[in-house]
Amino acid sequence: MRQSIIQWFRFASPQSFYPLAGRMIPWFWASAIAFGIAGLWISFFVAPTDAQQGEGYRIIFVHVPASWMSMFLYLIMAFWAGLGLALNTRVSGMMAQAIAPTGALMALLSLWTGALWGKPMWGAWWVWDARLTSELILFFLYLGFMALQAAIDDPRRADKAGAILALVGVVNIPIIYFSVKWWNTLHQGSTINLTKAPSMAQTMLWGMLLMALCFWMYSIAVALTRVRAIILERERHTEWVKHALE
Amino acid sequence: MKPRQKRIALIAGGLASLAIAAMLTLNALDSNIALYVTPSEVAAGKSPQGKAFRIGGLVKEGSVKRQDMTVRFIMTDTVKEIPVAYTGILPDLFRDGKGAVVQGRLGGDGVFVATEVLAKHDENYMPPEAKHAIDQAQKKP
């Protein structure tokens, strides 16, 4: 037991995490591209036209994975931030910092594609309903986290302040997810549920899941690339960084 | 307790109290977060008086009537009905028997004068052939 804990902590040191991340990045890029090609091919050429919405519904192949990722990434970011706060592991704070911009990008993508969808389908770019508003708050939480971290010079204090903000913001995630169930919203209910079969044609579902996998792989690849840069920046005074860059 | 355990306990306690606070706040805000009221709620007098609000429900099948630029239809939640008049362009997905959200004011004559009509689509996605098959199946008694 004790032995295994020590093994895990080894990767919490930037020096051993840096090369590990470097080895993993190409694999995540390769699978992101593979899933992306398969997902886009299904979404554009295989998935049938929707009976109600016509071709316009195809925006879900970007909209839904982006929304999922914006929520997942926030949970992962908060997890790392909380881990850093509780255990004082050094890479944790850097991971949280590395995930935030990708999470913000996903939230923005979700809002943007949602607006493009909303205009033709609903008749409005934006409505202040619970789902849309809570997703907008999520976007601001990401921006707030990034701004707060950037505003504090000492990285340890920046991590701590950011971690508290990230953990407080977790409250928003169940609100986003259940908003369509708890309140009257213009946004439709969830198509994919844990409790019942998805109410969507099989090929459409496949397209969406492949795109979600592509977004996952892309997010991990980008976050790892970013965390490597953060490690180098924060550890620039150490011996091993000087050796690593030679 | 070691300092590390203390920190973990503090964080867990903080998160738990935060979750309770959020739950209570949302509970208190409940009715204000809803985007629209249903026709039954309007009939029960729960709609805001004297100001614009939104009604959500189904467009009653066969109730849509066009007259020049004005469209008249009935919003229903299968229990209560409210007649609506709207002048303007309807969204593509606005259809008989489908969900919609209308924004406007309730006139003295009981007709809801809408300034905006939004279509509400459902969470089902299917190809036209599947839709056709379901429609056929539903027609059979």
Terminal CA distance of chain B reads: 70 Å
Q: Average pLDDT value of chain A?
A: 88
What are the low-pLDDT stretches of chain B, counting only 5+ consecutive residues below 50?
A: none
Order of helices and strands of chain B: HHEEEEEEH
- Unreliable spans of chain A: none
CATH architecture of the largest domain in chain B: Beta Barrel
Largest sheet of chain A: none
Number of domains of chain B: 2
> Which structural class should the secondary elements of chain B be placed in?
alpha+beta
Query: How many angstroms separate the termini of chain A?
Result: 38 Å
What is the CA-atom radius of gyration of chain A, in angstroms?
20 Å
Strand order of the largest sheet of chain B: 1-3-4-6-5
Strand content of chain A: under 5%
General form of chain A: globular
Mean pLDDT of chain B: 82
Describe the structure.
- With 246 residues, chain A is mainly alpha-helical.
- Chain A has one domain (24-44, 60-244).
- Chain A contains nine helices and no strands.
- Chain A has helices at residues 2-10, 14-46, 60-87, 90-121, 130-151, 155-169, 172-182, 202-234, 239-244.
- The longest helix of chain A is centred in the N-terminal third of the chain and has 33 residues, at 14-46.
- The two termini of chain A are 38 Å apart.
- The model of chain A has no long low-confidence stretch (mean pLDDT 88).
- Chain B is built from three helices and six strands, in the order H-H-E-E-E-E-E-E-H.
- Chain B is extended.
- The A-B interface holds A 48-53, 57, 60, 82, 85-88, 120-124, 127-130, 167-168, 170-171, 175, 182-186, 188-191, 199-201, 204 and B 4, 7-8, 11, 14-15, 18-19, 22, 26, 30, 33-38, 56, 89-94, 98, 101, 116-132.
Tags for this entry?
heterodimer; A: 246 residues; mainly alpha; B: 141 residues; alpha+beta; OB fold (Dihydrolipoamide Acetyltransferase, E2P); 2 domains; 34% helix; 29% strand
